[in-house]
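To close the section, here is one more complete example, presented without commentary so you can practise reading it yourself. The ligand is malonyl-coenzyme A.
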Amino acid sequence: MSKNLYALFQSRFPNNMSSDFIKSPDGGNLSYSELDQQTAQMAGTLLSLGVEAGDRVAVQVEKTKEAVVLYLACLRVGAIYLPLNTAYTADELDYFMGDAQPHVMVCTSEKYKNLEAVAQRNSVPHLLTLNNKGTGSLMDRFKRTLPHHEVKDVSGDDIAAILYTSGTTGRSKGAMLSHDNLASNADVLHKYWGWVPNDILLHALPIFHVHGLFVAIHCVLMNGSGMWFLPKFNAEEIISLLPKSTVMMGVPTFYTRLLDHPDFGQSICQNMRLFISGSAPLLEDTFEQFSKRTGMTILERYGMTEAGMITSNPLSNPQDNSRQSDRIAGTVGYPLPGVQARLSKNTRDQDATDRDATDGDVGVLEIKGPNVFKGYWKMPKKTAEEFTKDGFFITGDIATIAEDNRVAIVGRTKDLIISGGYNIYPKEIEQIIDTIDGVKESAVIGIQHPDFGEAVVAIIISDNTKNLHEAYILNHLKDRLARFKQPKAIFFLDELPRNTMGKVQKNILRQNYANHFKTQQ
Ligand code: MLC
Ligand code: AMP
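Output:
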């Protein structure tokens, strides 16, 4: 059988091809037969643009069924899909286009004008549009194109997608995920979470990251079943659709927002069999409140762009299927089948041998398995640095592993903020703030936030040539940084706290501002 991930999905299509793959509350459903037909037609469209296997197709569009069709069509022709957060500015896209050199870039008509120059500068041969209602120049071309039904024969190691993830140095790296990486993870998750034929997923996540694009959509395709496909998270809409769904996946903010809603409770969850949380730590308080309110236990799992899903709490106790008590708050469960996990006592020790995976110590989590990516696009040196000599990927997350192999994430070695499930690297923001006229230096930290879990806060030191204020700083950031990365609060200090080595003591800053968003409520 072909190693193309799309061929795997085809092998799982339901017998009744007229059943829905995508269900939209305002109509506009997509059946499995339409899905197969339209991905073939989109494959033909890509080929008509000269896309060849291995070419990158960069996509920054809203969440629509056409966008899903475009992703699957890329798989079909062996092209590399490159999804981009819709919040990224033209400045941010400039770097991605220069680095990835896509053959085609697809954006919304609204963004077209801003991106024309970016595409030209980076010699992107085709810039096309795809809009909310399935309009745009890509779709015009699609309508004129004949379907191309063949599924490209690829090797399992061929790259299916590149997802950019920022780094502690501030420079984004393109994580290359192969057809086999994605297929193995999809297969494991489909089994581990016990998907059953009539499951219906409630899909409210964005589709430009691992969680919404791969974990959620791949499970549905492996199951040959349907999903409610919402453009974004909206508590009211979720509440109205929960009675018609069986599985939901979300970041912790989804769950805190639902708990804040007076209409959310047990009666509307009667049809649900599984709530899954990930991408950021789920607070024990949220876990417990959820269980009190609904009688159901959230299943928390842990993953990252470079490896898809790595660990998961169990679906049920193997001795007693009805018990969900093995889902333990504050832990992310067991390494998924096929994944090896161990701890290193040193932050970045590629040679270390003194590892003991079950001694309950705190250490840096290292992983190996068929889900682990093929490296960073055009960065062989950086890739080599992230792996140990014996082939384990160094996650940068600090964890404990208990006697029974259960993992808990207790911190990070990377200077990273996770806000509403989005990763934000302080370095990237500091580098931009430091270029603003009047700024001497800055420190960016994450502090606790009731809605987003963590929120970005900037502490700025003036060079005394200007009277700095918040609006002035934000105005300089607006075209350079995605909205979600922009500070939710800015403070001005005379100097930054430093240790004897001259290193900024971010822990002191975090302590000083820890209550800022709590007291604001
Ligand atoms: C939106 N804003 C955010 C934000 N999302 N700010 C910080 N962090 C975020 N996550 C900004 C908006 O631009 C807006 O700014 C203001 O905050 C409030 O917006 P909102 O309308 O309340 O937000 P909303 O659109 O509802 O989005 C919140 C959210 C969304 C939590 C629903 O961010 C989301 O869907 N997050 C999921 C992210 C995700 O899928 N992560 C998976 C990564 S994969 P203003 O000022 O303009 O009003 C991964 C691997 C793994 O991590 O393990 O899964
Ligand atoms: P990303 O780079 O966006 O893929 O984010 C991956 C990072 O999110 C991981 O390295 C973890 O730091 C964090 N993460 C994902 N899931 C969890 C979880 N359940 N608990 C704690 N952190 C998580």
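Once you have examined the tokens, check your reading against these statements. Residues 30 and 222 are 16 Å apart (CA to CA). The pocket of malonyl-coenzyme A (ligand 1) is lined by residues 205-206, 209-212, 232-233, 251, 253, 278-279, 303-305, 419-422, 452, 483-484 (CB under 6 Å).
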